[in-house]
Each structure stands twice: as C-alpha cells, then as structure tokens.
Amino acid sequence: MSKLLMFEKPVGMRDTLPHIYETKRKLKEAVEKEMRSWGYRFIETPALEYYETVGEASAILDRQLFKLLDQAGHTLVLRPDMTAPIARVAASKLLKERVPLRLAYSANVYRAQQREGGRAAEFEQIGVEMIGDQTTSADAELISLLVSVLKKAGLKRFQVSLGHIRFTDELFKQILGTEERAEYLRRFLYEKNYVGYREYVKSLSLSSIDKQRLLRFLDLSGGKECLEKASELIEGQAGREAIEELNSVYERLEEYGVAEYIKFDLPLVSHMSYYTGLLFEVYAEGVGVPVGNGGRYDQLLEKFGRPASATGFGLRVDMLIRALDELAEEEAVHCILFSNERRVEAIQEAAARREKGEAVLLQDVNGVEDVDRFTEAYASVSFFLGKAASGKGN
Amino acid sequence: MLTIAMPKGRIFEEAAALLREAGYKLPPEFDESRKLIIEVPEENMRFFLAKPMDVATYVEHGVADLGIAGKDVLLEEERDVYELIDLKISPCYLAVAGLPNTSIDEVAPKIATKYPSAASAYYRTKGEQVEIIKLNGSIELAPMIGLADRIVDIVSTGRTLKENGLVEYEKIVDITSRLIVNPVSYRMKDQEIGQLVSRLSEIISEKAV
After folding, report:
1. How far apart are CA A89 and CA A306, in angstroms?
2. Into how many domains does chain A fold?
3. Contact B60 A288 (CB under 8 A)
4. Do the beta carbons of residue B172 and residue B122 sit within 8 Å?
5. pLDDT tens digits, residue range A94-129?
6. Residue A160 pLDDT
7. SUPFAM superfamilies of this UniProt entry (chain A) (predicted)?
8. Which of A51, A294, A341, B202 is the most buried (most CB within 10 A)?
C-alpha cells in the first residue's frame, strides 16, 4: 500500500461542511419533531456492539461490517443499522416496562464499501421502530408517519412501494413444492434479475398454467387493482391472508389520507431473509437509490431472547438531502470588528444582540489581514475601531 | 423524460435498430453522431453514449434511467439494477480458450481475462483455484506469448480464436444484451418505462416466432 497523504480519508467516509450541515440540521429537526409528535421516544445506543449479538442479528451483509477487536479478544462491530441495537435494548430492558413500544432514533451507521466512490460508508439514519404490536394498524401508522415525515422534510415527489414477503413465499411454495427452488427464485428477485427469473421458470417442469402464474407475478405492481390480480394467482389460506393484510393496510392508509403516495410492488424483495411480512421501500425523484426502507420483522426480537412482533422504517439523511430541491440558507451572522480601545463596547454590543437572538461574531481587527475579504462572508458588519465612540457603520 | 445509456460500438447499431422497429423515431444522425448526448424531444427521450462496460454504472447511480448492456457486463459488474428484458441482440458467449492440446498448470493455473470477477466466480463454482490476470484487450495474445494457460473471453463467431491458433475448451454462459433499469426510475417512472418495455417485448417476441 502506498503511503497515505495527510488529507486522505478511508473509502466512503465524508466530511459535512457548514452549508450541508445547516441543511441537515433543519431537515433532522423537522423529521424528529414530527416523530415526537406521533408519540415516538428517541433513544441512543453505542456505536460499538458485539459481532456475535448485534452483528449477527443485523440485516446487513457480513462483508459490509466494520469489525475490530476489544482487549479481551471479542470481535466488535461498528453498528451497521439501528434496528438490531434497538431490538437488543427493547428485549433486555424496555419490553418489561410496557407493550407496545414506540421508539425513534437518529444515528450514524457504518457499512464498509468495497467498490469505488459514490457510496457512503458512514451515514446518518433516522427512523422509528414499533415493537410488540402485530396489527395492521401498526403497519398503517408507520407508513402514514413515514409519508408525513417526508412531507415535513420538504420532499415533493416521492413514492412508497409495498410488498409482502409471505405472499411471495406462499406463491412459490404452492407452485414449486421445494424450499430449494423457492430460494432460487427469491434470489433472482433479490438480485432484480427478471430475465434470469423468467428463464428459470421456463426451464422448470411445471404445467403451463403454473408457469404463467409465476411469470404474471412479476407484473404485480401498480395501484390497488394489482391486489385483485394477486388474489387470482394465489390459492390457500396463508396467501390470502397476506393479500388481506395488504388490503387492510391500504384501506387504513386511505383513512389517513396518504394513499396517493402508495403503490404496490409484490415482487419487491429487499432482503433474503430478514422481513417476515409487509415490507416497503421509499423512492424520491432525482435520487438514484431508495431514500429509505422498512417492514415487519417478527423474528428479530426472538434472537435477543424475547419474542415480539416488530415493524419499523429507516431513512437515509444524506439521500433525503439529495432529494431536496435546494439547500437551506445558512443563518445570517452579524460581524463586529473591534480594535483594542473599544473592546468593552464591542463585547457589550455583541451580548445585547445575542440576547435578541442574533448570531454575532466578534473579531479583533488586528487578527485579520484582509478586512474586506473577511467581512464579505457576513450579512452585516459593524465596526468598533479607533478611539471615537461614533465610528459605527454597516 | 427518460435518459438512456447506450453502449458504443458493436451493440449500438443493433440496439438502435431495435428501438426503431419498436416505433421510436430516432433521428438519422443518431447513428454516426460523434456527440455524446443526443436529445430526442419528439419521443421525450435523451440518449448518451458510454463505454459498454460503464453502462451499468451510469444506471446504478441513476444518472440514466435505463441502459442497454451485455450480460457479460452485468456478470462482471454486479450492479444494483433491474435486468428487465432480454433484447436477444448481439448474441455471443463467454468461454474458456487456450492453445490446442495443452493442460493447465496444476499448482497455479493462470487465467487472462477482461472479466476478472466473472472468471473467478466461474472457477470457484468449478472448485478450482486459479490466478486471474486482468487484461484490457487482445486477450488472445496471453496464451500465445506465455502469459497465461487459459483465457476467459467472449466468443461470437470463433474466428478470432481460430486465426490465432486457439481452441475453445469450455463454454461458460450465453450472452445477449439486456435492458437494465435503475431501481428508483423503475418505480418513479413506471408508466413511461412500462410502455417502452411492452413495445420492445412485442418486437422481440415477434422476431422469435
């Protein structure tokens, strides 16, 4: 490896400079306020967790984990998401308090990137988890909150796509019989390889009706009408229940008045094994990757010794910023330049302005080489220079 | 509006012909244009020309909604994009080739290729450990000059292999060009993309008959 230059950062690590920071701060404030106003309580968890616990339970691929060792030789991970740490806390402490739980978080997560630039290895996620409520009301509340949060964040054009992994599993199980073949097809969906999916289906020895069912499954996306088409493809109780769940969530979303942002996408498989029911991804115009995702994960809490149903979503703050039409303006700062003789006067003036809520910067004129260039950056300037008490200006 | 990344070279002409057959009115200068970006306002489309290997990268990052890329590129790059339809154009295949009547070094067989990850994945599934040497072109040279025991490359007619005295040992996978789509565009522009997909699918199945 070549010697590192002093300005270099590890792959995927980014700095946040003032103008982005300001946009990020405003966006987070708006989002957090909305989450709190729906009764979600914020928590924090440590950045380092054990690999054997949170690392293994996490939905993030093993090769994306940053791993390190502690003094005792345990493998640690930098938390790759917040869902697993929250499940750990909920299982060990909070669930004893009361059920169901509504928790929120805003924290940096870490995912090693092996490829070239363009992908962040550290980014902030903001999201909520609802633990211990298996009703579709919980799912609907979550998605409505999601839509509400995105609006408050200032996003104009966005969409939430809903899928249901139990529908997919049930359809595959009915037609294919074996878990192995189902796994194969699921992987094609996960890899978004519809060509491979079709070829594999055609290669199977199935009746042409069953092949058609599997092929038509890929077209099950769009508005509410696709649920009817879905029910034509499926037989049996479990599959119907999944559709019934989607139906009932959709009806509730209509009641919340957010159905216009919702589409169905039944072939959506965001993860090979993590989700257990409803799942969704969030897309915003102008951003090439999903700004967030979520769903129901009823088996995670069990890994921490306390089985409970759970559902949640996480949004990527950096992607939300990219989805905004414009960055927030930095707050106007008033600049006071003073010389030694009038320092006291300048300090008093600054204190008085700050008291009124202004942001005020105090600068000793002897510390500045080029006064014009320095003052350029500020909205307004006053001077406390020389001996006279009347040298005030803008 | 849809932005489409087109591969320069071999696939381009066939892809442009296919789009025309599907009823898209592409300007005549489309084919010999040296411009990198071509606007087609009548169709509400914008095309840009990229290196075939880079098409999937543009689509993954979302600067192109769609792209036309060979399966070889998709195997090699493993980008997070939808592989939506097989356009059945530019057929060829990925194969292992080498000098005739030679066996490969048992200790550290060397494989030269333009597709290091696809080649390494292939040998892994075969349970063989090999050393991959990445080259950027004229792969046939490697066994002739003694750089590698075998090459992994795309073969369309087999003429290049033959002219250089090489023979094909194994066929790895069939390759055709695919329509790929950015996952967000696939949802946010579902109407426009759906229309393009059904027009293209229609033409492709007509041709298959």
Report:
1. 11
2. 3
3. yes
4. yes
5. 777 668 899 999 999 999 886 666 788 999 999 999
6. 97
7. Class II aaRS and biotin synthetases
8. A294
Percent of chain A with pLDDT over 70: 96
B184 with A161: Cβ contact below 8 A: no
**Chain B residues bordering chain A (beta-carbon distance below 8 Å):** 60-63, 80-86, 178, 182-185, 187-188, 190
Helix, strand, or coil (residue A97): helix
Range of the domain at B112: 92-175
The domain spanning residue B60 has which CATH number?
3.40.190.10
B191 and B148 belong to one structural domain: no
Residue of B188, B173, B180 whose CA lies nearest to B55: B180
User: How far apart, in whole angstroms, are the C-alpha atoms of residue A120 and residue A12?
Assistant: 4
pLDDT at A392: 46
Q: Are residues B84 and B12 in the same domain?
A: yes
- Do A149 and A53 lie in one domain? The reply is yes
Verify that B82 and B158 share a domain, yes or no. no
B92-98 sheet: strands from edge to edge: B131-134, B110-113, B150-155, B92-98, B167-175
Q: Are B16 and B60 in a shared domain?
A: yes
Given a cut of 80, whether residue B31 has pLDDT beyond it is no
| Residue A319 annotated in ligand binding | no
For residue A391, the one-letter residue type is G
The ipTM of this complex is 0.88
Percent of chain B scoring above 90 in pLDDT: 80
Q: How many CB pairs under 8 A join A and B?
A: 51
Residues 6+ apart with CB under 8 A from A119: A12, A113
Tens digits of per-residue pLDDT, A44-82? Answer: 999 999 999 998 888 888 889 999 999 999 999 999 999
What is the CATH number for A377?
Answer: 3.40.50.12590
Cα distances (angstroms) measured from residue A199 to each of A202, A269, B19, B183: 5, 19, 23, 21
Q: Does A111 share its domain with A22?
A: yes
Same domain, residue pair B13 and B83: yes
- The yes-or-no verdict on residue B166 having pLDDT over 50 is yes
Q: Do A150 and A245 reside in the same domain of the chain?
A: no
> Is the CB of residue B95 less than 8 Å from the CB of residue B152?
yes
Same domain for B204 and B136, yes or no, is: no
Residue-wise pLDDT for B96-144, tens only, equals 999 999 888 778 899 999 999 999 999 999 998 999 999 998 999 999 9
| Predicted local distance difference test score (pLDDT) of residue A274 | 86
Residue A12 CB neighbours (<10 A): 19
pTM of the shown model: 0.88
Mutate one of A156, A193, A197 to test the B interface: name it (highest B CB count within 10 A). Answer: A193
Q: Quick one: A45 and A121 in the same domain?
A: yes
Cβ contact A195–B190 (<8 Å): no
Residue A271 lies in a domain: no
- Answer yes or no: do A161 and B187 touch at CB < 8 A: yes
Total domains in chain B come to 2
Question: Are B168 and B182 part of one and the same domain?
Answer: no
| Shared domain check, B86 and B12 | yes
pLDDT for the residue A388: 61
| C-alpha triplet B192, B197, B198: angle, nearest 5° | 100
pLDDT score for A394? 42
Distance separating alpha carbons of residues A95 and B78, to the nearest angstrom: 41
| Domain end call among A330, A345, A366 | A330
Domain span holding position A216: 158-261
